[in-house]
């Protein structure tokens, strides 16, 4: 086996959120496996601590991945939070600024150390959104950099046009105007990523996204976690008119991850509960899977309505919920339900017992549903979730809308509506049509990542570019 010292070294830098870590780490494992590369995965110390606590093998020593001699290792950096603090982030503006100041300094020290060891100088840095300053840092150190965009191509294009003011977006004077973007359906003002709307409570998130687009010219390559069939015309348009992009998704479906030797190298920041045995005991297409990603939390009233709707539907359910559950809820479910802190979501969605997915429509969850062929009940809340919901329901036609979402929408979805949505998504003519569509997207995703598929070829092209650097 080759020594890690002779392998081309790629350094991945992730914003410390679950939805950012998952796709970048998947990319890292595929690159190591496919390209026979040494990959270092880096995120903040506190995210690293959570990953270790959840049982992930995140060693600083190179660990073999795949069958071709590639390796992966981990190195965590300081984001200015005191080392023993694992606080949730509430003030994004302050956090982004601290992350840039401390993260940049810490990463420069790490990258210089790797260079000085001359055994592992870094040939390429890859970052995901919300750490746009990585392109500046790479430029300063004279290292080529690439971006893995972890949302849809539709969101990429929306953010690009917003950042460049090339089409009118809702603004202070006209907050409700529709947005007309090339090769996209017309988006209503509550269907654009909420951080781009003037009423957003998180303008700093909008600003950090814009900064990434201002830095686009500094990146040598933009990889997107989507696949050609899903967004074909738009991908072609963006590649021709905006900047070359390479769709490489859905990364979690890559056959290279199946043969990967180090299975417990995961990015989970919460240990997944074992629910696969419980699913095995359930009939085909009999379970509703309910999960809202790593951030969304239901308020008490919405929780009560959602839980009542689920109970009244009479269906079995697997619900990911990190808050404490009233005892009477599970008693009333009479063994029909299982509640977990965290699930192995891609495996759950691939299980034949799952009939539909009640989701907040985060991009990872959206892509995981599409490529496992599972229809969804869309419950978007903020950010790109509202745009993903629009596509799931109106464009890809695998979803029922439970709400419109958006930061301004304070509406609580009632129990009757919840129950009706579950029925509509699982047992009527429309449900059968949605399932057919979902299976079509699943098949296309498998073709994209298979040997000879477009995402697979794009990854190979990228690996060849890295080797040529
Ligand atoms: N996830 C998981 N188990 C859970 C809930 C979520 O493994 O119980 C994973 C899910 O598969 C996805 C990620 O966490 O890869 C959540 O990302 P997403 O973009 O859907 O939502 P976010 O957390 O960014 O809002």
TrEMBL record:
Entry EC number(s): 2.4.1.-
The question of whether Transcription is a record keyword is answered with no
- Its top-level enzyme class, in one word, is transferase
- GO MF, one example: quercetin 3-O-glucosyltransferase activity
Swiss-Prot/TrEMBL keywords: Glycosyltransferase, Transferase
Q: Which family does it belong to?
A: Belongs to the UDP-glycosyltransferase family.
Q: PANTHER family from the xrefs? A: GLUCOSYL/GLUCURONOSYL TRANSFERASES, UDP-GLYCOSYLTRANSFERASE 84A1
Name of this protein:
Glycosyltransferase
The source organism is Lactuca saligna (Willowleaf lettuce)
